[in-house]
Structure formats: C-alpha cells, structure tokens
TrEMBL record:
Boundaries of every UspA domain copy: 1-138
Pfam families linked: Usp
InterPro entries on file: Rossmann-like_a/b/a_fold, Universal_stress_UspA, UspA
Name this polypeptide is given: Universal stress protein
Organism: Arthrobacter humicola
Family: Belongs to the universal stress protein A family.
Gene3D superfamilies reported in the protein's UniProt record: HUPs
CDD domains, per the entry: USP-like
Length: 142
C-alpha cells in the first residue's frame, strides 16, 4: 500500500501513541505519514517588545505541534509531512484526508468507553464519516 496515512495530534501522550502506531504502519506499507493538528479558531495576537514583533495564532500553534511530532517520528526510509488544519479534530482529519487523497486515517481510542462513548469521540466521528479506511490504535494505558 502506497499513499498517505493521516494521523491527528494535539500534544497529548495518547495522540503521540497513535502517531507512533501510524508511523509504524506507514513504514510497513511504504506510505507517507501526514501528521495533522487541528485548530478551531482564528485567534491571533501580536506582541511587540522593543523592535521585535511576534505573531501568535492558533494556526501557528497547531502547526508547531504537528511539526514537533512529525520531526520526532522521522526514521530513515519513512516520508513524514505535517500540517495544521482548520476545524474541530474529527472534521479537520476528515477534510485533510479528503484533501490529500489519504488511504487511511489513524486515531487513538481515547474516549471510546464510558460516558465518552455516549457523548462521542474523535475516533467515533472519524470512523463514521471518513472517506477512507480508519485504524483505531489502542492508546489508553491499563
């Protein structure tokens, strides 16, 4: 299987476990791993101090999370890309999978039990609406 495997990250330990699973799947299938972090607002803040100016935005923060995780997942022979995607996490992953023509989305199983199962989860939403295969990685500990 060549193509693209999309995985969502948010800086949490469980998302990192899902990303590591996605990396291993991508390596074994000869696919590109595409690491995505979602942002849901357009908040932007400009901070100036002396002659320096910094622009801080939700999109920039999401891209930084995706880049940091992607950089940590790189291995010889594995192609890894990253992006920030607008929307709630499930929506952003689905849209990014559609945009890139992904063959698979990898999500963690966080909130797949108990009250989270009733209220919904990213994994549940992605599994029901994805344009491609979905792999739900066991990311909870215990």
């Amino acid at each position: 299987m060549t193509g693209i495997i999309v995985v969502g990250v948010d800086g949490s330990e469980t998302a990192l476990r899902a990303a590591q699973t996605a990396r291993d799947l991508a390596a074994s299938m000869g696919a590109t791993l595409h690491v995505v972090s979602a942002f849901d607002s357009d908040r932007t803040e400009v901070i100036s101090s002396g002659g320096d100016t910094w622009i801080i935005s939700d999109a920039g923060n999401a891209e930084k999370v995706a880049r940091t995780v992607a950089d940590g997942l790189r291995r010889p022979g594995t192609n890894v890309s990253y992006a920030a995607a607008r929307g709630k996490p499930a929506e952003a992953l689905i849209n990014e999978a559609e945009r890139t023509g992904a063959r698979m989305i990898v999500v963690g199983n966080r909130r797949m039990s108990g009250i989270g199962r009733v209220l919904g989860s990213v994994a549940n939403s992605v599994a029901h609406n994805a344009p491609c295969d979905v792999y739900i990685a066991k990311t909870d500990v215990g």
